[in-house]
Write a structure and sequence with these properties.
Layout (H helix, E strand, L loop, with lengths): L1 H23 L9 H9 L1 H15 L3 H13 L7 H15 L3 H17 L7 H18 L1
Helix pairs in contact: 3-4, 4-5, 5-6, 5-7, 6-7
Protein name: Tetratricopeptide repeat protein
InterPro entries: TPR-like_helical_dom_sf (IPR011990)
Length: 142
């Protein structure tokens, strides 16, 4: 019973922090820039996984969302540029789980993929989201 109560308190605390961050918009563009989400929605291989991960995020089940997104990253048939969005999504989940170093790693990986992208102008919203999120990490780390 004590463990259950502690878990509920911890979950409530996490949800409170999440909602505060969301309201203050400390995490840039929570659901990714439109250009990234459009690409994920258009790709039939990604659509189901993307929606599943988004559902887990809305339910505060960030660990499950990370697993879904990581599975997509490991799929060799997914275009390199679609991995930008999944890295940002994983970084967002890690950020909300207070795993800031891991979040930073994923945001930086999205920037590395962006450097190799063909249409850099179309990817600017993703770049700004990743850079803004890295800025939030540094702000939180002090």
């Amino acid at each position: 019973i004590i463990k259950d109560k502690k878990n509920k308190e911890e979950k409530s605390k996490r949800e409170g922090l999440y909602n505060r961050l969301y309201k203050r918009q400390e995490l840039f563009d929570r659901n990714l820039p439109g250009t990234a989400t459009d690409a994920l929605e258009r790709n039939p291989l990604l659509k189901k996984s993307f929606r599943s991960g988004q559902k887990y995020e809305k339910e505060y089940k960030f660990e499950k969302a990370i697993k879904v997104y990581e599975k997509c990253l490991q799929d060799l048939s997914i275009p390199e540029e679609d991995k930008i969005g999944f890295n940002i999504l994983i970084g967002n989940c890690c950020f909300f789980l207070s795993r800031l170093n891991e979040a930073e790693k994923h945001f930086k990986e999205s920037l590395n993929i962006l450097k190799r992208a063909e249409n850099k102008m179309a990817k600017l919203p993703s770049k700004s989201a990743a850079l803004g999120n890295i800025g939030n990490i540094y702000h939180n780390l002090g």
